[in-house]
Amino acid sequence: MKKIIIIFLFSVSSLYCGFFSDTSSYSGKLYNFVKVDYFGVHDEYETPYFVFMGKKPGPVMILDGGIHGDEIASYMACDSIVKYLNLLEGTLIVIPRTNIKACNINQRLVNIDFNHAFPGDLTSDVYELRLAYEFMWLVDSLKPDLIINLHEAWTKWSPEALTDPDKAYGQIVISCVKPFEDLLVRAVDNMNKNIPEGDFRFHTHYYSVREYSSLDNFVLKFGIKSYTVETYRGFEIEDRVKLQLVAALQFMEEIGLRFQYPAVSF
Ligand SMILES: [Zn+2]
Questions:
Q1: Separation of 189 CA from ligand 1 center, angstroms?
Q2: Within a domain: residue 166?
Q3: How confident is the model at residue 6 (pLDDT cuts 50, 70, 90)?
Q4: How many angstroms separate the alpha carbon of residue 89 from the centre of ligand 1?
Q5: Strand, helix or coil at 26?
Q6: Helix or strand run (H / E) with residue 172
Q7: The model's pTM
């Protein structure tokens, strides 16, 4: 019996990062598997990401944080999802620190703005371009139904944003497609039902296509739905992480993933 247990543990640990250890919320339930993979193996930007596979197949979604290394609520929210999510149906890929070198020094960028390095170049000397190429390759191989990019902003949204784009940012969800897709409108309406009335609530926002940006490359090159969530950095970090979580979890629900995650309350 001891031998069987040892073989089982070895086979699990060699393939997966393991089962969740916190069973208090999900006592008696079966857990999803989480596989760890990497961008840039043996390169300066080697970056782990987490592939959650539910017990049943279903929609596929990518959630990325840390494209800008100083937007800390984005990767704190991803870390929380990696720790507490139990995915029942579908596949979720979580990349908490997409630009890990910038995250490690808590700066927006290292050489160039990674979010402006798309579609990337695998032969470049600049790691941000190699990373962007790998990210595009991952998207092309997985062909997800939805990609959600988590960001933060120093500018706070005000009603003037409806006519002046410079007044936008925290709290918005950006699309480069107009009219807005039903999925976006529904997701923002529903996430706001879980957010107290006032400045914390999200607004849909349109920006025209920029050919170098991550979001626009996902949409234009692959025809995949993708939106960028921006929280306002003037809020307390605890609230920013909750707002990122509410947005990410709502998109997961709207695209049709089935999952368990502890309630987020303000
Ligand atoms: Zn950003």
A1: 23
A2: yes
A3: very low
A4: 30
A5: coil
A6: strand 172-175
A7: 0.88
> Which stretch of 19-33, 62-76, 205-219 has the lowest confidence by average pLDDT?
19-33
The confidence score (pLDDT) of residue 25 equals 39
Token pair, residue 172, equals 């918005």
pLDDT digit string (tens) for 187-241? 999 999 999 999 999 999 998 888 999 999 999 999 999 999 999 999 999 999 9
Give the helix ranges, DSSP H, for the chain.
2-15, 72-84, 100-104, 127-142, 182-192, 214-222, 237-255
Q: Is residue 43 part of a domain?
A: yes
The pLDDT value recorded for residue 18 is 38
Kindly state whether residue 55 falls inside one of the protein's structural domains. yes
CA of 28 to the centre of ligand 1 (A): 39
Q: Let me know if residue 266 belongs to a domain.
A: no
In the chain, how many domains are there?
1
Please name which of 121, 149, 123 lies closest in space to residue 137, comparing C-alpha atoms: 121
**CA pair distance 59, 76, nearest whole angstrom:** 24
173: domain CATH number?
Answer: 3.40.630.10
Distance 16 CA to ligand 1 centre (A): 30
For residue 224, give its domain range: 2-260
Amino acid at site 50? F
